[in-house]
Amino acid sequence: DVKVTQSSRYLVKRTGEKVFLECVQDMDHENMFWYRQDPGLGLRLIYFSYDVKMKEKGDIPEGYSVSREKKERFSLILESASTNQTSMYLCASSWGGQGGEKLFFGSGTQLSVL
Amino acid sequence: AQSVSQHNHHVILSEAASLELGCNYSYGGTVNLFWYVQYPGQHLQLLLKYFSGDPLVKGIKGFEAEFIKSKFSFNLRKPSVQWSDTAEYFCAVTPFSGGYNKLIFGAGTRLAVHP
Questions:
Q1: What are the residues whose beta carbons fall under 8 Å from the beta carbon of B52, sequence distance 6 or more?
Q2: What's the burial of B95, exposed, middle or buried (CB within 10 Å: 0-12/13-18/19+)?
Q3: Interior/surface letters A11-35, b for 16+ CB within 10 angstroms, e for the rest
Q4: CB B103 to CB A105 under 8 A?
Q5: What DSSP letter does each residue of chain B carry, written as one string?
Q6: How far apart, in whole angstroms, are the C-alpha atoms of residue A39 and residue B62?
Q7: SS3 A7
Q8: What is the pLDDT of residues A30-72, one digit of tens each?
């Protein structure tokens, strides 16, 4: 079974801090994704990556950056955390392709920025 | 812009009641369609998907969905819900438009089933 592991289940950070969210998948998937989940808004795509060192902006990339140095690991970085970035962050992965594949999700990281 | 609309944000049912959750999308071309479910405290998981072929697709746990192309809809149904179906349900669509085709999620529907 595919496993997508997010390093933290809960995080509390202060405004202005640099925040790293880590995600690792164990099925050699080409594609990896970062979403944020907010009540009433569903899931919104922040960034995705279809290969090592490759990244593409999603729908809401502002205030975020990503890093994919190894195929199995995809990191989300909040350069200077703000209160409006308080959210549930979900990592996902999928087999390579042009989209439309099934996504496998991690359990999520609930980030609170105070 | 392409979008996915889920008609109900909250649904409350008693056990054994029938369920239908609405989903509409705004794209006229080829699409892949999905329903994902998130049980309390668990990760999102795929409930069912439609890529092509029979527009009536069956998923896990007795769920099914029907793709009606003329209505741009992909409604989720279950004839008789159980307490364990309490969860949040997300409709998602991949519109194929060249390049990498991203998955677009609806806002979700929270279903509460009372014993």
A1: none
A2: buried
A3: bebeeeeebebebbbeeebbbbbbb
A4: no
A5: ---EEES-SEEEEETT--EEE-EEE---S-EEEEEEEE-TTS--EEEEEE-SS-SEEE-GGG-EEEEEGGGTEEEEEESS--GGG-EEEEEEEEE--SSSB--EE---EEEEEE-
A6: 27
A7: coil
A8: 999 999 999 889 999 999 998 898 999 999 999 999 999 999 9
pLDDT per residue as tens digits for the range B69-96: 999 999 999 999 999 999 999 999 988 8
Task: Classify residue A99 by its DSSP letter.
Answer: B
Question: What is the spatial distance between Cα B56 and Cα A55, in angstroms, rounded to a whole number?
Answer: 36
B87 burial level (CB within 10 Å; 0-12, 13-18, 19+): buried
C-alpha distance across the termini of chain B, in Å: 41
**By a Cβ cutoff of 8 Å, what residues of chain A touch chain B?**
4, 35, 40-45, 48, 50, 56, 58-59, 90, 92, 98-100, 102-103, 105-108
Q: How far is B105 from chain A (nearest CA, A)?
A: 6
| Tens of pLDDT, residues A63-104 | 999 999 999 999 999 999 999 999 999 999 998 766 678 899
